[in-house]
Write a structure and sequence with these properties.
The protein has about 325 residues and is of the alpha/beta class. The protein has one domain (about 1-300). The protein has 9 helices and 11 strands. It has an 8-stranded parallel sheet. The radius of gyration is 20 Å and the shape is globular.
Length: about 325
């Protein structure tokens, strides 16, 4: 099983102690976002979990927990979003320069292969045209050279939750020629910084620029990190163009405190304050607790995905 921690919130930035407590307990409860009475019980033992994929905009607060995390012997890697929009849009996020210093510390510890830089989402608006993006991207790529081997990008997904941001800022994905010009130049910058550039969940094809489709939850990378190959199924719960392997997300919506105006995982500020105020590092659920009327369901298909290799036998025909 692959654990996603988490597309729904930033566990490394805000909820590291809770996460380590869940590893110690050996299980985590996850409420169904659609049906509140349905709660899955997900095992977190080394026998079940092949890899943890952390998603964060700032790994700094999680660095003190790495010794404890490593003691559980579960492989992991990080997808780290660093973008140039500033406090006007990413309202409570540390500066890119500060975050990059934390990423450097993390990379020195776990290696560049286990760190994926996400320049995501790419947003076009009044103050961010192709030229502005390329200037910011080049600076970040230079700072991250040798710290990561890959950069992944995507364009703004205009979910209903962010319609106000889109309207106020005139934000969007730009024209086709702008996107192609930008991606072609980004690919060259990434190459010069010894990085591979890949797209995330985009139907638009950029192979002419040498840019392929990424699998952010990547069974090949997981196999390298684990030291053994894994079976994987496509994640049907994601967008159509997503290439990710199936995983179990243990996060909770409306709990990220970075305050990014383009975020699809949060609703209005009052919901975030109300939900995050429920945080208890000892709770089996993130920013939540059982009311007593739930159905606790053991996780299905939560066993290890390890492929057993039979000596002398090949599956190639």
């Amino acid at each position: 099983m692959i654990i996603s921690a988490s597309r729904r919130t930033d566990i490394p930035s805000f909820y590291g102690r809770w996460f380590l407590n869940r590893l110690k307990a050996g299980e985590v409860f996850v409420r169904n976002p659609v049906n509140r009475k349905q709660v899955s019980v997900i095992p977190l033992s080394k026998d079940n979990v092949d890899c943890i994929v952390f998603w964060t905009k700032d790994p700094g607060p999680f660095l003190p927990f790495l010794d404890e995390l490593d003691s559980y012997g579960i492989p992991y890697y990080f997808s780290i979003t660093i973008t140039p929009y500033g406090p006007d849009i990413e309202t409570r996020l540390r500066s890119p320069e500060s975050v990059i210093e934390s990423v450097k510390s993390l990379s020195r510890r776990i290696g560049s292969k286990r760190i994926i830089w996400r320049y995501d989402p790419v947003i076009f608006f009044k103050d961010m045209d192709v030229k502005s993006h390329l200037k910011a991207f080049a600076v970040m790529a230079e700072q991250l050279e040798g710290i990561t081997d890959k950069c992944v990008f995507s364009f703004l997904s205009e979910y209903g939750k962010i319609s106000e941001f889109v309207k106020k800022r005139g934000a969007g994905n730009g024209r086709r020629e702008e996107r192609r010009s930008l991606v072609g130049a980004m690919a060259e910058i990434a190459f010069q910084a010894n990085m591979k550039l890949a797209s995330c969940a985009l139907s638009e094809d950029f192979r002419e620029s040498g840019v392929g489709h990424n699998r952010c939850i990547d069974p090949d990378l997981i196999g390298e990190v684990c030291g053994y190959p894994i079976f994987s199924r496509p994640d049907k719960s994601q967008r159509e163009a997503c290439g990710c392997a199936e995983s179990r997300d243990i996060g909770s919506y409306n709990t990220c405190l970075h305050g990014c105006l383009y975020c699809y995982a949060n609703r209005e500020e009052s919901s975030i304050r109300r939900k995050s105020a429920l945080y208890n590092p000892d709770s089996p659920m993130l920013c939540d607790s059982l009311a007593g009327d739930e159905n606790l369901t053991p996780c299905r298909n939560c066993e290890s995905l390890r492929k057993e290799i039979i000596p002398g036998f090949s599956f190639d025909f």
